Amino acid sequence: MATGETGFDDVTFDLISLQYHSLKAGHDYGQYVRDAENAGQQEIAAFFRDVMAQDSERAHRCHQFLAQLGGTDNTSPQGGAG
């Protein structure tokens, strides 16, 4: 495996990066849901919830792949089975 400038192989770095961005986006989407609800736009709020759920699933899959690659799995997504 190639090792990037971080000392991690490229695939591990890519998974960590995708996981971080998915979790960060999911956090931001919570505000989008509230904004849409406050504007009385329930259909748009539901859309934002769907997008948030997709990013949550993406982050969870990254977590699983990282564990498969041999990372120490001493944490799991909150509320997840690990």
Can you walk me through this structure?
- This protein has 82 residues and is mostly helical.
- Helices cover 68% and strands 0% of the residues.
- The chain has helices at residues 10-38, 42-68.
- Helix 1 runs antiparallel to helix 2.
- The longest helix has 29 residues, at 10-38.
- The chain is elongated and about 45 Å long.
Summarize the structure.
The protein has 82 residues and is mostly helical. It has two helices and no strands.
Ordered list of secondary-structure elements with their pairings:
Layout: H1 10-38, H2 42-68
Overall 3D form: elongated
| Radius of gyration over C-alpha positions, nearest whole angstrom | 16 Å
Which structural class should the secondary elements be placed in?
mainly alpha
Q: What average pLDDT do the residues reach?
A: 84
Give helix % range.
55-70%
Beta-strand content estimate: under 5%
Strand segment count:
0
Distance between the termini: 26 Å
Order of helices and strands: HH
| Largest sheet features | none
